[in-house]
Design a protein that fits this description.
The complex is a heterodimer. Chain A is mainly alpha-helical. Chain A has helices spanning 5-24, 27-43, 51-75, 93-103, 107-117, 123-130, 134-152. Chain A folds into two domains: 1-82, RNA polymerase sigma factor, region 2, helix turn helix motif (Rna Polymerase Sigma Factor, Chain: A), CATH 1.10.1740; 91-154, Winged helix-like DNA-binding domain superfamily/Winged helix DNA-binding domain (Arc Repressor Mutant, subunit A). Chain A is built from seven helices and no strands. Chain A is globular. Chain A starts with a helix and ends in an 8-residue tail after the last helix. Classes of the chains: A mainly alpha, B alpha+beta.
Chain lengths: 160, 209
Amino acid sequence: MKTDTQILFEAYRQNVYAAAFSICKNAADAEDILQETFLQYHQTNKSFENEQHSKAWLLRTAMSRATDLYRKRKRRNETALEDYMQPLEFPSPESSSLFDAVMALPEQFRSVIHLFYYEDYTVSEIAKILHLTQSNVKVRLSRGRKLLKESLKEDWNDDE
Amino acid sequence: MTNKDKYKEAFGVLQPKTISWEEQPMKHNNNIRTFKAKRILAVAAVVVILAIAAVGAYAANVGGIQTTLKTWFQGREVAVEVSARDDGGYDFAVTGENGETVASFGGGGVAMGRNGEERPLTPEEVLEGNVLEVIRNEEGRMMLYFRDRTYDITDFFNADGVCKVKLKDETKKFFKTIYVDVTCEEGSAYSVSVGNPKGGRSAYTALDN
């Protein structure tokens, strides 16, 4: 089966955009990746088991594109890391600090952290989406959490 | 609040400007056409070099009525519906097993005869320029498709995002070697150039030794 692109776009555009942004740290790039990802979905012949399978594919495709772009910009020193904060209005200073702390994480931790904390995926699901081993996902999650705790201190709980 | 609640609150501020899929199709279609057009130009150049004699059969063959041809699409042979456009070009729709459209693109071009006369390319000639395709797949790998052949060229990109590869087209009597330049551009976009080697033949990695 393949869910209609319009339906998926309405349902998951924010998820795909946030996933891309969490990697590439740039609103314009994330917007491009959002459109390119849905265009790729629209054109693919791939068959999907259900809507959740489609969503996982969209997130993986967007994150993969964002990773490519982020690494390319990093090689060319094009990424202005401070710019991403300017247009965003956070509901509280704590939210802003958390966002900043996540953006400061190494790239390989951000994708795992985002899928776990924002998309509620399990370790095994993240492993499948990112084509990593479960132990690799656990290590990245653990190191990412440790860095967030060091940065946010009491604003980051000891729960999962 | 749990960490997940805090995270969702923080990242919930990220909202894309694009609010509807329907806003995008024209932009996407134009992108596809632009991308294909680069390769069509390469085909036109080859046609000029070979100085094929002009023949009377071109867009009028189709005459606005849809025709079905065969072509290569991502390593497999598929049916493609051809519609002539008013500007002398064509719209192509790749159809799936059940007749549904799975991809579409446009293209056209001009061939020059021995005496300098011009004629529009036939749809077959335009499609011949599309047998080489480069796409980024869902795993993020850059794949090059040429007729029924598939190559993963991801590891051939240099630090500047440029990939130079060459491959053989055994269906041709002359100009058997095809030189391909793939260049990463802004965003996740990339351009594909097929034609004469840039920077010397030795700069190109052979895909089929």
